[in-house]
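Q: Could you fold this chain for me?
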Amino acid sequence: QTTDGRTLGAQWTLFRSALAPEKRVGWSDPQIWIGHAALTSENSHHVAERLARGGVGQAGTVSQPFGAWIDDWQMKGATSGGDALDRLDINANGSDFSYSLTLEATGPLTLQGDKGYSVKSLAGQASYYYSQPFYTVRGTVQLDGQSVDVTGKAWLDREWSSQPLAADQSGWDWFSLSFDDGARLMGFRLRGARGDFTSGTWIAADGRPTPLSPGALRAEPLEWSEASG
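A: Sure. Below is the predicted structure, expressed as C-alpha cells.
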C-alpha cells in the first residue's frame, strides 16, 4: 500500500538451472541464472528479466550472511543475529520501475509437503520446498517518474529439485493467499495430459502447517485471454 492508499504488487525471483552435473570454473561453469522482477498496479504490469552464467560472479548466492544476486538486483539477509531470513533487503529495477524493500519476519518458516518434501506428480516427481509467509514490508517504489513509500506483506519461497516435471506435465499454476484472520494458503496445480495434479498447505495464523492431500485443492480457470499470439 502506498501512503495515499494505492495497492501495488512486487515480485523478485531468481532461478538456477544446471546444464551439467559437474562443477567448472569461469565461463565454462554449467550454471544458468535467470532473474525476474515485476511491479503491478491496478492498471499496469511492469516486468524485467536478467540472464547470467555462473562462475564469473555475475549471479549467485552465499549462505552466511545470506545473499542472492543477479547483476545489480540483490536479496540480502541480516548480517548478525537471528535467522538468516528474518530480515531481507531486496532491490530490483527495470526500464520503467524500481523498488527497494525491507522484509521482516513475524512468524516461523513453513516446511511444505511432508516435512519439506513436496510431491509434484503421481509418478513421483518432487521437490524440497519451504516458505516464509509472514513478512511485513516497508520501502520505496519508483513508478511513472514518482517515488512513493510503501508498506505491506510479503511471502518468500525456496524450492529445489534434481529433475524436471513429469513428461506429460505442461504447466504450473501457483497460488499464495493471505486471509484477514492471519491464516495463509499455499496451493498449486500442475497441468498434465492425464489430468491435473494439485496439492498445497493450510498455514494457521500461528504458523502451524496442515498439508493438503493431492486433489484436495481445485483450481478452475474462469476466464481466458490471449497475449502476443
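A (continued): The mean pLDDT is 93.
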